[in-house]
Design brief:
Blueprint: H1 3-6, E1 25-38, E2 44-50, E3 57-58, H2 61-71, E4 83-93, E5 96-104, E6 135-137, H3 144-167
Antiparallel strand pairs: 1-2, 1-4, 1-6, 2-3, 4-5
């Protein structure tokens, strides 16, 4: 038995946005409402519910701002009926790279508006997981973990480079920087 089966959650997690091959996917969803919620740790917040799943997405400032830009509506009560894409990505949180869910317009930020498409979902279908027909591959060839490792490698290179430059002696107070004999004069 898996942890999610033993302790089911009412909230979407980044791990829900992975296909059978382990690749990150984006899902097209329709917002049905926004409501107040008390999280398991006792904190209060807002969350979005979707037509395509029974699971909700906890709203953070980043996703709030994205949905506000997508819908053009500042009041979250007016977001119902709006179509967005949710996708999995790596973000920095308290100094660590972690998986997160982010929101964007259907087709991405640079895409033209997409016409309304019915999801073809019957009332009798299971809505506990998102529909496979709405899967959109993200970052083909690289998983979010591979992308994070690549970013961390680049950061490590920059750190080593900075440490190298900090080791070179610098002139202290009262001392001038002397040119070495190998330095070319103009």
């Amino acid at each position: 038995m898996k942890r999610d089966e033993a302790f089911p959650s009412n909230f979407l997690k980044a791990e829900h946005l992975v296909n059978a091959a382990g690749q990150s996917i984006a899902k097209r969803v329709t917002i049905t409402g926004v409501e107040d919620v008390t999280y398991p740790d006792g904190k209060m917040g807002r969350c979005i519910s979707f037509k395509e799943t029974n699971k909700k997405l906890g709203l953070n400032k980043t996703n709030w701002t994205a949905i506000e830009k997508i819908t053009g509506k500042a009041d979250d009560e007016d977001w119902a009926g709006s179509k967005i894409e949710i996708y999995r990505t790596m973000v920095e949180f308290k100094g660590d790279m972690v998986e997160a869910i982010r929101c964007r317009p259907v087709g991405g930020w640079d895409a033209a508006p997409v016409s309304e498409e019915p999801h073809g979902q019957d009332a009798g279908e299971d809505r506990s997981v998102l529909m496979a027909a709405d899967e959109i591959p993200v970052a083909a060839g690289k998983t979010p973990l591979e992308e994070a490792v690549e970013v961390m490698d680049r950061l490590a290179w920059h750190k080593r480079n900075l440490e190298h430059h900090l080791r070179w002696p610098r002139p202290g107070p009262g001392r001038s920087a002397k040119r070495s004999r190998t330095t070319r004069r103009r």
